[in-house]
Amino acid sequence: xxxxxxxxxxxxxxxxxxxxxxxxxxxxxxxxxxxxxxxxxxxxxxxxxxxxxxxxxxxxxxxxxxxxxxxxxxxxxxxxxxxxxxxxxxxxxxxxxxxxxxxxxxxxxxxxxxxxxxxxxxxxxxxxxxxxxxxxxxxxxxxxxxxxxxxxxxxxxxxxxxxxxxxxxxxxxxxxxxxxxxxxxxxxxxxxxxxxxxxxx
Length: 201
Ligand SMILES: N[C@@H](CCC(=O)N[C@@H](CS)C(=O)NCC(=O)O)C(=O)O
Fold this sequence. Notes:
The chain is mostly helical.
């Protein structure tokens, strides 16, 4: 199996952590959506990472579709996204909040990095960052420091997506230690676990 993408991308890292958590062997091609677009397009005509090339040559694109495939194929009774019911909805709610937070954080970064300075619209950046931090604060409020994981007493996609969103926020200069202290501490602890540690960019 081949994972296409760099772990600087939160979407790619989510997939890399998931592959590791499921104990799936893979090789990674460190390609960037912006810097290596032509190479990325071979796997994904949109030119975005991540993409996952399966052993039979089929390519799955977009982190949501990739996670869905990995859960279906490798999750069995311990899927990182529960298969149905209230548990599934609860995990998907956190994942949607955290992936939305990543989308917003990256929109803010793109506004700053992909426009000439005179065309950067600061209110848009502020609005995106406010949405990102509001979502992170909501999940921070769900963290029970006495419990090792966010829900169900075990690792789920809620933890993985909260981890990558907190790390992205930190990279975007959000002071998560002050603004989302429980999430910040939780991320630091998860980083000592192999699937998280081994995917550090
Ligand atoms: N919805 C996609 C988003 C993927 C995405 O935005 N990837 C970025 C890197 S973080 C990318 O490749 N951007 C290049 C581009 O959009 O041109 C997913 O979840 O996989």
